[in-house]
Amino acid sequence: MTGQAPSLSFEIFPPKPEVGNEKILQALREMQGLAPHFISVTCSNNNLNVEETTVRLSDYVRNDLQVPTIAHLPAAYLTKEKVSSVLQSLDRIGVQRILALRGDIIQGLPPKEDFRYATDLISFIKEEAPHFDIIGACYPEGHPESGSAVADIKNLKKKVDAGCSSLVTQLFFDNDVFYDFQEKCYLADIEVPIIAGIMPIINRNQALRLLKTCENIRLPRKFKAILEKYEHQPESLRAAGLAYAVDQIVDLVTNDVAGVHLYTMNKAETARYIHQATHSLFRHFG
Ligand code: FAD
């Protein structure tokens, strides 16, 4: 037992402009009632209008809802000038925590040259605005582009040394993969807290998207059985998907995880369900 209570936090994404913000603001108000440790706001990797999307929603979370906020910033398609201006905008609204990312490279669209890897962005922020707290992304099953697990961990070590205070993982469904990864990090002297990213699967479309886009994510037999059996039974799929996520979280907290970051897909009811089922585990103990 560590004596340190783990954190429970939520991730949301800015909706497409044609969808409007009404639904997400309502969802955020409901999430506020669950007193998350923080809410993180994603950012599209080819978005030149970061201020209108990620910064604006971060402002709402931080200043209207008074919830600690982390703004994601993928920089592969940004220039140094643009990143400086986003940092200033974040400073103005009092959001000084950034999840610093490279972002996915879009096929046929060459990235800009200023930030080849997330590490370049982290070094830049540390020079330009050292008061920002920087969080990095990590991949328990390896990043799809990396040649080997060893190369991936070495790159992660460089990223943390450039100035990350913690890491948040890509989603995973097999906790043993996470525990192995934690151990590899420890052996590589990566000692910052590693927050586990958990995505409850609550509908068929989400499951299909997941199977298509996350080829390298291991799906345990128990998880695959849920997807197969309840593929055409929405209520059962939702109930089983949520129960699976709760089971993962109970195991992670029992094994002293530093925190759990829920990929909510903007659904307050997902956050509420998980919170209700697990919140007593997140109280301070020790
Ligand atoms: P990097 O850390 O730069 O790594 C990318 C690849 O380069 C890896 O294979 C790594 O091993 C390799 N590499 C790193 N450094 C070096 C080096 N010095 N030399 C050689 N190779 C190196 N995407 C978005 O667009 N918006 C978001 O809001 C967003 N949020 C995310 C949140 C989390 C928690 C996670 C896990 C991912 C998120 N992503 C987001 C996805 C992410 O942008 C992609 O996975 C992207 O492909 C990698 O970004 P990164 O910052 O991890 O890259």
Structural class: alpha/beta
Instruction: Determine the strand fraction and express it as a percent band.
Output: 5-15%
CATH topology-level fold name:
TIM Barrel
SSE arrangement, N to C: EHEHEHEHEHEHEHHHEH
Helix content: 40-55%
**pLDDT averaged over residues:** 94
Query: What about the largest sheet?
Result: 8 strands, parallel, barrel
Number of separate helices: 10
Q: List all distinct small molecules, including ions and cofactors, that are bound in this structure.
A: flavin-adenine dinucleotide
What gyration radius follows from the Cα positions, in whole Å? Answer: 18 Å
What can you see in these coordinates?
Helices cover 44% and strands 14% of the residues. With 286 residues, it is an alpha/beta fold. The chain has a single domain, classed as TIM Barrel, CATH 3.20.20. An 8-stranded parallel β-barrel has the order 1-2-3-4-5-6-7-8, surrounded by 4 helices. Helix 1 packs parallel to helix 10 and helix 8 (221-229) packs antiparallel against helix 9. The longest helix is centred in the last third of the chain and has 21 residues, at 234-254. It is globular. The mean pLDDT is 94.
